[in-house]
User: Fold these one by one.
Assistant:
Number 1:
Amino acid sequence: MNHRERILAVLNREPPDRLPWAPRILLWYRARQLTHTMPQEYEGLSLREVERKLDIATAARDGKVFDAVHDDSVQVEEREEGGKRITEYHTPVGSVRQVMHFSRDLEEQGLPGRVEEFLLKGPKDYKVWEYVVEHTDYVPAYDAYRAYDADIGEDGLPLVGVGDVPLHHFAQALAGYEYAYYQLMDYTQDVEHLLAVMAEVDKAKKWPVIAESPARLLLHGVHLSSQWTPPRYFRKYILPYYREFMPMMHEHGKSVAMHADNDTSAILNEIEEAGWDMVECFVTAPMVPLTLREARERWGTRVIIWGGVPSLILSPSYSEEDFRAYMYDAFKVIAPGDAFILGVADNVMPDSLIDRVRWITDLVHERGRYPMSG
């Protein structure tokens, strides 16, 4: 089997010939380029060529199945002033703006800037954003997806980002974690009305485009966590959305993953109940208070795990002895290899030791053939 076939086998609940191994090395690769510290054996190679040399599947996260397009009544203005990027949305019912501090160095490494002022500060802004949401269409970009999918070929399978649940999008992107839950408490009815508008527009305009798309594997839902979306919020604001979204996607042959690089120890039951087929970039101890063994015991093979290698253990600060001991134990947990894609949570970071990635590749070849003995 090639990398693509192994990932598809896992999605189809079939045994791969060996454990799929698909870490994200983009941040490491960009950092080595930026600092001119690329190891000699990878010098001059493209990202894909480095991935092939390491014998790892490509993460394939640049595919898309739609373009979000505002109608002419929504004008978006973006400008840069003194290291700040200011984005303003102008509508007939008012304007909102975001201010982000950024740097070229961060952008070149694929790292975001820091938002200093979020779009939504209170009820007046919610009305503006409701207008923006209602006057946004989702235009199919299926040909772009097919071209990207063909380019990825046997090196992997595109994981296509198609959005987030309204509550978390509000908290992370629109109001900011620091302020979102204060606003939810202070303006409960207004925030809930905004979330309802976002959900209804998603259902009417976005979901059909996603469902009819040629994509096989979708990414919907990011950074949901024990802290920011604990069970009571999850059950009230997130479960109802996915109880409608998931059946529609499954009826159209899609698998849906959640980006799970936060502490999910308190919401494991809710994740399964919501219907995700997979948690990807799934982070575990020593980075969060949840071990791979605990997650596997709770979910069995009902939820596919894409992860198993916390990025911390690839760092020089983590001893070689402890790194290898962790990996040997992880392979015992993963055995016999059902419903699992080995990956790094969240990324192979700029300071990671790439030789350890190569070592894991060798371990997969040595001990990852299905069924794994443990």
Number 2:
Amino acid sequence: MIIEKLKREDLPKYKELIDEAFDGSQDIESYLKYDENSNAYEIVVLKEKDEIVGSVTMYKLDLFTFSFQPTIELFNVAIKKSYRRQNLGKILMNYVIDYAKENGYKTIHFTCLEDEKGVHDFYENCGFKKAESRKYSMYL
């Protein structure tokens, strides 16, 4: 297994992972907006030979106005169903934690659906604590 930044040529395989993990996603044209040279975000994938079996997207918020900044916001933490329960999610989360520490980030944040108890347990086993906050959204 290797961990690497998502390459543009691997976008179709990445989309397959996201579709499986989240029961669908946007069309492939949306994925073509991906910029593997972006400084604002990084999509990290876990690969077994030529297959993408896991991923996490890190948005890097380098602001400095609050004590928890700079911070990394996580999205699309995903492991292929046939590879779950093999500690691969923990490997990805440890990669993120090490990256954050090595690059001067103070916190890591993400949003998780309230009814995903198993996922909550996973994050807590990785050392994360439930934040006492409320998320608001406006869909446009």
Number 3:
Amino acid sequence: MSHIESARIAARLDRLPPSRTVWTIVVLISLGGVFEFYDLFFTGYVAPGMIKSGLFSPQSLGFFASLDSIKVAGFGSFVFSTFAGLWFGVVLLGHLPDRYGRRPVFTWSLIWYVLCTAIMAFQQTGELLNVWRFIAGVGFAVQLVTIDTYISELIPSAERGRAFAINQFITFCVVPVVALLAWLLVPIAPLGLDGWRWVVLIGSIGAGAVWLLIRRIPESPRWLAQKGRFDEAEAIVSMIERKVRAETGCELPRPRQESTEESGHGGFRELFSAPYARRTVMLSVFNIAQVIGFYGFAAWVPSLLIARGITLTHSLEYSFIIAIANPIGPLLGTLFADRVERKRQIMLGLTIMGVAMLAFSQASSPTILIALGVLFTLAANVMSYAYHNYQAELYPTRIRARAIGFVYSWSRIAAAFAGLAIGYLLGAGGVPAVAIFIAIAMVVGIVVIGVFGPATKGISLERINH
């Protein structure tokens, strides 16, 4: 009976037509994710200011200075702390949305970010800066996992691709904002406080304001039904249906209950049982590969430009111009997100990223460098919304957040070590060495998705996981 009720709730959600009611929920969820992207992307933009402040000298770094043995102690230790915290967070906390619900984890992780990031902004040594960066990452890591889970479960299957594209359009809109703030603030010290500290604090204040808005988001009816809380699930779905009817002025189409998710114990071991083991391995390898390109460029773009002969001030200016392209990629994706198979979008994005990075490493003209940076960014962000959608579709409701957290965790730990590797390669072989490293990773991502990835376009979550 419980499987039948869960399938009925899912069928009622999947038959909903496009409406302001549903898209308002997507927008509110997306606003919650804005500050994870703010947090991740300010890393590269504030780097020159942090380095100028002397925070990464051996004396300031404390025990982090031991990384100097592999010649990447400096700013690489901050990048490492960022992604190491995010990795521990998704590993330790990734199961919480499946256990306690999407909504409470979503809201409390944002509070964690506000508090820990504000504390980090006032640290006076590289050692404590990195420690608080790690702590902030542990708590905030589960945010994006919850967002992907939330959207996939609330949005009808025919609009899922577009919903993820809109979600990432909204979240990526903050990237040019943080780039602009860094360009304006990092070279100066308003009120005697280093400009990079202002950039960090602005993000923390903004996240606090968004927390007041996202309290209107309902819990996932699919999760409630899966937990046997059918009255609550029924109440939320009925509320959404009433609003959609009032908005459209039409009766809703009849639900088509096609299938139910197969039962399972819902524990960690299920990630490695049929049919999910193959998907888990595929997505784990893919996440390791894609993040080398995605954050290998995004987190290091000012430093990469400086390595190509651009001055500090101009590198921040050019980084801002490149950053403007971030929300444009997902916005373009709304035109084809639900028309082109998800895995093909991912593979095409990876291909363009690899080619653009190789060309970037050989260019010297500022105009060409900017153009290639924009092209790389557009492709990376099409790939990004497509794979966030894709990995959320490949697991059932009972383990969706845990599974996304596990496979996504590999991107976090890979980004931590990739940051160290890119720091080393940039010093040892310059931008061409970094480009070859990224291009190889893109090939690996293309192969695993192309060979092992199933089709999901327009298919209900329950049917994909039946």
